[in-house]
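Researcher: Here's a chain I'd like modeled. Treat it as a single chain, no partners, no ligands.
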Amino acid sequence: MEKTITVKSLALSNIKKKPYRTAALTILVALASGVLFGTLLLTASIKGGFSGIKNRIGADLMIVPEGYEAQAESVLLSGEPVYFYMDRSIEETVRGIQGVEAVSSQFYLTSLSESCCDFPIQIIGFDPETDFIVRSWSRKKVKSSGTDDEELILAGSNITTEKNNVRFFEHTHNVSARLAKSGTGMDNVIYADINSLQNIFDDAKEKGFGFISDGDTKSKTSVIFVKLAQGVKPDSTVARIKGAVSGIQVIQSDKFVSGLMDSISSFMIFLYAGSIIVVLITVLTLSIVFNLSINERLREFSILRVLGADFKKLRSIVFTEAGFIGSLGAVLGIFLSALILLPFNILISEKLNMPFVLSGAGQLVLFALVTFAVLVSACLVASVSGALKVSKHEVYHGIK
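Model: Modeled as a single isolated chain. Structure tokens:
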């Protein structure tokens, strides 16, 4: 039984006859596809990370000791252990300022690597009675400690626990809840209520272990978070706070996050520019190869023309071949890029030292579809010149 000769069968036949050329072109398209998909995924994940910072802060203002804005930034970005302190009485002063709706403070306790874990870890003490930030990120509802002996310990999503316990200075502590992933440095932090934090410090001191910080949770605090009343302008409240308290720095959350975004804008532009250049080089290279291929096959196309194929069908053969190569290369590139980025997203986040929240399944599918469409379109555009050459070719001249 004879098979019907179609545009699809002719295109596939030519692709199979030139395996090395097909493989080279597919790899080229896969490279461009992988770069484009990776760029879309990385930039979206970084943006999601910065959005996570804004949400995780959960406050309109942050108050830190004067000159320690950079250290506060390092905690949010990477969870890097730091310590700095100011008088805790500032919290009550700020609470009484006009326009302030809620105030909560946190105490940074930094362990020495040899005293606790395999690496230095940031332990942050918070007040459950005034907290409006930490517990809102808990994966389950957590109530305030009922007694001074009851521990309230929340672990960031990147903290390794054994049977829901963490061990500090030869003493095991039960983790009350895990915090939802934010893609920020807060995922590498352990939160404890102030009483538990003081107990950890006292227990370590008795055993001869040490902290970089002094553990004075009664009279000191590290950062004060401020939530403003509805409709209150941050700038005016900042001015009131600075007028009432000296030796502090007030950070506006919106300006803080937008400033961080501005600082990495050049990096993201570089990623986009790199992707565009790779795609353009791919189109140019494919165009050259397709044209050379058409020159080798002019006799073939002339015979098809004599056998009754019109110019439209000849052009369809060229476009179909380009479409097949583009589809195969795009799928391969997306698969390989995902194979690298998805399993190692935490490592990538650490190397970039930026907030990083991996895009959800919906976004991944969208990026894959966009990448596929762009690369297939690029292949079709690259084949236009060859298709036009086939249309203009003199049939009988090609047979001679």
